[in-house]
Amino acid sequence: MLVSRSFAAAAEPPRLVILNLADLNGAKKQLDANDAALLPALSRLKRDADRALGAGPFAVTHKELTPPSGDKHDYMSLAPYWWPNPNTANGLPYIRRDGEVNPERDQTSDRKRFGDLVQSVKTLALGYFFTGREDYAVHATKLLRTWFIDNATKMNPHLR
């Protein structure tokens, strides 16, 4: 079993965007010292990470509709406040309805799938960091490869 390690003394610590490495290392140190105050949080993290092991895989290609580009590998999103035009046969051009979220946003876009991917990977990564459970890291890697790397399912890397 690969045991998670503290990155506090590493020559080049990993660059984190969302979380603070010093805080993570501090919490890990407290848990290693059996700090009872953090045990409920660790228990919940383990529960969430175990649940995340069954999540996915998520892929940009798992949508029913094809984006206007014609390529299912393109990320598709809809602006939340834009609705089909009731005065035209094809609903175009969309019209803005301020404050009213179009339910098509989650039915046809990749937003929810991507959000689920991000949450699952974050939970699995934290689970791995605090427990050293290799299966958490393996599944997080699988989820990321499916969305970003595997040829059959990867998202096209552009902003068009």
Structural account:
- The protein has 160 residues and is mainly α.
- Helices cover 42% and strands 2% of the residues.
- The chain is built from 5 helices and 2 strands.
- The protein has a two-stranded antiparallel ribbon with strand order 1-2.
- α4 (111-131) packs antiparallel against α5.
- It is elongated, with a radius of gyration of 20 Å.
- The mean pLDDT is 90.
Write the layout of secondary structure elements.
Elements: H1 21-32, H2 39-52, E1 82-83, E2 95-96, H3 104-108, H4 111-131, H5 134-148
Antiparallel strand pairs: 1-2
Helix pairs in contact: 2-4, 4-5
Average residue-wise pLDDT: 90
Mass-distribution shape: elongated
Helix content: 40-55%
List the uncertain runs. none
The tally of helices reads 5
Output the radius of gyration. 20 Å
Major sheet size, sense and barrel closure: 2 strands, antiparallel
| Distance between the amino and carboxyl termini | 43 Å
The portion of residues forming beta strands comes to under 5%
Q: Widest sheet: strand order? A: 1-2
Number of strand elements:
2
Q: Indicate the structural class.
A: mainly alpha
Following the backbone from N to C, one meets helices and strands in this order, namely HHEEHHH
